[in-house]
Amino acid sequence: MALDLGWLTFGSGAVICVAIAVAYLVFGMVGFGTALVASPALALYLPLAKIVPLLALMDMLAAMTNIYKDGRKADVQELKRLVPLMVVGSLVGAAILLKTRPEVMLLVLGIFVVAYSLYSLSKFSPKRKFNPGAAVPFGLVGGVFSALFGSGGFIYAIYLSGRIEQKEGMRVTQTTLIGLSTLTRVILFLLAGVYADISIVLLALVLLPVMLVGVNAGRRITLRLTRDQFIKIINVVVLCSGVVLIGRYLGQ
């Protein structure tokens, strides 16, 4: 079992702490987006094989923190619609991952997400509400991309922003979905022996106070926002997610 954090100097520790604080500030506000913010900084010091299980573990803990404080505000009906579809989508995503090269899907999804978020941020976007049936494509696609690339939160955010009026209900429902998704991933990593590398767990514990500060700060900011301001922030994060997906495809 590895237990090596010798590489963690003052400089690298400061960079990682800032990245984690900002990532979980975003998570505390909108309920997703940590990989988007934290992965580039973590990649300077850690291999991807450690970043993914590290963020899965921390996302699960962050989601539990939000659910503990505000779980009663989650929209149970939307969770009932989305969770089974998320599970099915995850199974489909796992099958795609085993049998094909899914990289081109990064480009397709990235273009769609960028176009959608730009439209939503524009003055041409009408105020509309998705019907419950929209849970089917959004739930399935979110599950597929969670399994393929560990990033499906922004898909659920698009759906929930068109379904739930109260910003707190939207944020907590989103957080609950991410919590369930990451719990599944953590269990799989645990069964696969990934966390036998104790340095991953140790680093998560070291960063836990920074994560908690970020999550709580993000929650406090959200409480002061209007719903329109909250939706704009979600669309900006979704837009950044789309740009990152396109960048990942072009960088291969």
Secondary-structure element sequence?
Answer: HHHHHHHHHH
Oligomeric assembly? single chain
Task: Give the beta-strand count.
Answer: 0
Report the β-strand fraction as a percent range. Answer: under 5%
Shape: globular
Mean pLDDT: 83
**Number of spatially distinct domains:** 1
Low-pLDDT segments, ≥5 res: none
* Tally of alpha and pi helices: 10
SSE-based structural type: mainly alpha
Characterize the structure shown.
There is one protein chain. With 252 residues, the chain is mostly helical. It has one domain (10-250). The chain contains 10 helices and no strands. It has helices at 10-30, 34-42, 48-70, 76-99, 103-121, 135-149, 153-161, 167-191, 198-224, 227-250. Helix 1 packs antiparallel against helix 2. The longest helix has 27 residues, at 198-224. The radius of gyration is 17 Å and the shape is globular. The two termini are 32 Å apart. The model has no long low-confidence stretch (mean pLDDT 83). The chain crosses the membrane at residues 6-30, 42-62, 82-98, 105-122, 134-160, 230-250. Its main location: membrane. It holds the Pfam family TauE.
